[in-house]
Specification:
Blueprint (H helix, E strand, L loop, with lengths): L1 E5 L4 E4 L10 H17 L4 E5 L8 H8 L8 E6 L5 E5 L12 E5 L6 H11 L4 E4 L7 E7 L5 E11 L14 E2 L18 E2 L1 H5 L4 H14 L11
Parallel strand pairs: 3-6, 6-7, 7-10
Antiparallel strand pairs: 1-2, 1-3, 2-11, 4-5, 4-9, 8-9
């Protein structure tokens, strides 16, 4: 994940907010907390959480990262078994690094697994605005089974549902505001920016229309202006 925090001047990009399975849940959470803490210390007034092309990781990572944005005991997601029984998982702790303040979340068709849990939890709680494209639609709880030849098979044993009960499997998480980049335009990443900083003028010249649109939406939020979504139009 990457986080862009917005202040009165430059747009700063935080590196390493989240990561892959192999990093471990604790390391991922610490990186997320550190990046958000750095943003606050730098005077951030808003945060853009970029989950595009994020394949996700462990469910514990999703809980930890989502809890940085949502107060304790906020429903995050549900697990549904083959008999239709559901179990709800909630956020933990009241010391998240960005539980207040404007928030925009970017997703696309490459956002999968735990990144879908984080983005849908923020969306269902009304905590932030989801922008971009419909996510991949992983939505299954995979359990490993040892095979006689020594290999491991992953079998889907449960479905992930959003906090409000929407199915993710093969449907994905639909953003509040749909924005696509032009064909051939790649998403901007932290390594694109020298010293993790880009001026407002440079920002508006980016070809990454999704990120630029997210920044424009953030500026509206900071100015107390509404951001048009299907529910508000």
């Amino acid at each position: 994940m990457a986080a862009v925090h917005v202040d009165d001047g430059a747009r700063h990009v935080g590196r390493g907010v989240g990561g892959q399975q192999q990093q471990g849940a604790v390391q991922v959470l610490r990186r997320a907390q550190a990046a958000l803490r750095d943003a606050k210390n730098a005077g951030a007034k808003g945060v853009i959480l970029d989950l595009r092309n994020n394949p996700g990781g462990l469910v514990f990572e999703a809980i930890g990262v989502a809890s940085q944005f949502l107060p304790a005991n906020t429903p995050l997601f549900q697990q549904k078994d083959r008999d239709g029984n559901t179990k709800t998982t909630k956020s933990v702790g009241s010391n998240g690094e960005w539980q207040e303040g404007p928030l925009v979340v970017l997703v696309n068709e490459g956002s999968a697994s735990s990144s879908e849990l984080v983005s849908s939890a923020i969306q269902d709680a009304g905590r932030g605005i989801l922008m971009g494209q419909t996510t991949y639609g992983t939505g299954t709880v995979l359990q490993p089974f040892q095979v006689s030849d020594g290999s491991v098979a992953l079998l889907g044993v449960q479905l992930w549902l959003t906090a409000n009960g929407r199915e993710i499997y093969k449907k994905g998480v639909v953003p509040d505001v749909k924005i696509e980049n032009e064909p051939g335009v790649y998403m901007s990443v932290p390594t694109d920016f020298q010293n993790d900083e880009v001026t407002p003028g440079e920002f508006t010249k980016l070809e990454d229309n999704q990120l630029v649109s997210a920044q424009e939406a953030m500026m509206k939020l900071l100015n107390g202006e509404p951001v048009a979504t299907p529910a508000s139009t």
